[in-house]
Write a structure and sequence with these properties.
Length: 525
């Protein structure tokens, strides 16, 4: 066999091994996120991709990065398939193709990061430190784009590997979750760079990794020890009705569903705010006087109910439907409401409906209409509250009204679509990161779980797990002063990246000057 043929075969084998390694590393990322949170795997998966991309051409780097993304999302969001089996006879056959297609599309973002890194690293002689910084920068840019392009899907950001580690996740208070991803990936690929380095440089890079972890831990620990504001003295009751999704909207189950929520809400104990999850009431509550009168009997004097309900408004174009949280006082009268503004594609509306002959997965009379955006509600006797319905809580910097800072965030959700999969745990992780970023407690009411009280440091104070029926009685945790991220948003990410590169370039220039000076002195000597 000719040498050039043997060479091509060897190149293909090496490419196949790197693609396989990329896919395996991507698949392992699911174990770095809750509920597993295996921290030691973080440097393994990202260093494997970092090392595997070195020396690759444009096309090969794209393929390896895409394989990593396919493993990352194919396993990381496999829980989405559960929603198709709620009505298996209608949508069950679409479950695997839908997850595979979505994973393949999302994998383009890691592929973009891989291509940009590999091209620049191949053309320029980068030191280990600059190479790691370059990789982390492009990875973070790709994550940011994933969170914004085509309505965005910032699920399982790299920084969420730290959510179960109290001190390490606190960095998000300054630079947000995208900034935390930047730092996480940068530190994670340093071991890979150390493995490729030699001699003194290997030791230097290894010490950098340890210093990065130690710095994040120390800064986070200091934040945890700082004083928060005084608790507002407000008592909450969260109700988790645990109604299976396939039963929730059945007409024959409506009374039983409503009765369960009323019974749980009426259990002994005092509260100022009663919290029901997304679409807890299976109907249009503001139009149902009898139902509101029954709710009034469960509300103590001076208390309010915040509940997820559908809403409809007549318009010139026909009836418009909204996914809302509405507030009711102890008389059953509606006080105010909030309409979800970040809707779920194919779940709450069908994109390009005129072109795509596809049904949406959720029951209803028509597509939902998005609300105007984040809003802070002022309720009698209750600290100012921001609302986030379902997956709105996954978007960093897009939960709180910047003009009217609230004292807490209420996340009404319905994760019944995803059964007992890892989806609800990952969703909860996003809510915890919003608490850290904003310096605000997040209170979560979920139909089948996970309902939780999360303090302003992202710590879970109380929770009801998936599949449990019951209530949480808890005091509203105190808020913290506005964080840097709450004040400046993703500008802090840009500042972090620019500062990192400025410091790196300055350090590189200083090192180069010293080498030149040493060489000059040796020649002169």
């Amino acid at each position: 066999m000719k040498p050039e043929v043997l060479n091509r075969i060897a190149l293909r084998k090496r490419l196949l091994s790197r693609v396989t390694l990329g896919f395996a590393a991507g698949a392992l990322t699911v174990l770095t996120f809750p509920p597993f949170s295996i921290l030691l795997l973080v440097p393994v998966v990202y260093s494997a991709l970092f090392v595997g991309l070195r020396g690759l051409s444009f096309g090969r780097a794209f393929l390896v990065g895409w394989a990593f993304g396919l493993g990352q999302f194919g396993f990381g969001i496999s829980w989405i398939a559960e929603s198709f089996y709620v009505e298996a006879e209608r949508f069950g056959a679409m479950a695997i193709p839908a997850v595979a297609g979505l994973s393949a599309g999302l994998a383009i973002f890691p592929a973009i990061a891989a291509v940009l890194f590999a091209e620049i690293a191949r053309r320029g002689a980068l030191g280990s430190f600059l190479a790691c910084l370059l990789f982390a920068t492009f990875w973070t840019v790709a994550e940011w784009l994933r969170g914004h392009v085509l309505t965005g899907f910032p699920w399982n950001l790299a920084g969420y590997a730290l959510v179960d580690y109290a001190a390490l996740r606190q960095t998000a208070a300054w630079v947000g979750s995208y900034g935390l991803s930047f730092l996480t990936v940068f530190v994670a690929v340093l071991p890979g760079a150390a493995a490729m380095a030699s001699g003194r440089q290997r030791l230097t890079v290894s010490l950098m990794a340890l210093a990065g972890i130690a710095t994040m831990w120390a800064v986070g620990t200091l934040r945890l020890q700082s004083d928060a504001q005084q608790p507002p003295g407000v008592d909450l009751r969260i109700v988790q009705g645990n109604i299976p999704q396939e039963e929730k909207w059945a007409p024959e189950n409506r009374e039983a569903t409503f009765a369960r929520y009323l019974e749980l809400s009426s259990r002994p104990g005092n509260f100022d705010v009663l919290l029901w999850p997304e679409t807890a009431f299976p109907g249009f509550l503001d139009e149902d006087k009898k139902a509101r009168a029954r709710i009034a009997t469960a509300l103590p004097e001076g208390s309010v109910l915040l509940t997820g309900v559908p809403d409809r408004v007549p318009s010139e174009d026909g009836t418009r439907y909204f996914n809302t949280v509405q507030a009711f006082d102890e008389t059953g009268e509606i006080l105010t409401g909030y309409a979800k503004h970040h809707l779920v594609p194919f779940g709450e509306y069908v994109p390009f409906r005129g072109w795509l002959p596809i049904e949406r997965l959720t029951a209803g009379l028509g597509d939902f209409t998005p609300g105007p955006g984040p809003r802070t509600l002022a309720l009698p006797g209750v600290p100012l509250v921001a609302l986030a319905i379902c997956y709105e809580i996954i978007f960093p910097g897009h939960v709180v009204d910047d003009l009217f800072r609230p004292d807490w965030i209420f996340n009404a959700t319905n994760d019944a679509w995803f059964g007992t999969s890892i989806g609800p745990e990952q969703h909860l992780a996003s809510a915890r990161m919003r608490a850290v970023e904003e310096g605000l407690p997040v209170i979560r009411a979920a139909n089948t779980g996970i309902s939780a009280v999360i303090d302003a440091n992202g710590e879970i104070v109380a929770r009801l797990d998936t599949g449990e029926t019951g209530i949480i009685n808890a005091s509203l945790p105190s808020a913290r002063p506005p964080t840097l991220y709450a004040s400046f948003g993703d500008w802090m990410l840009l500042a972090l990246i620019l500062a990192s590169w400025s410091w790196a370039m300055a350090a590189n220039a200083t090192a180069r000057y010293r080498r030149m000076r040493k060489t000059f002195m040796q020649r002169c000597g």
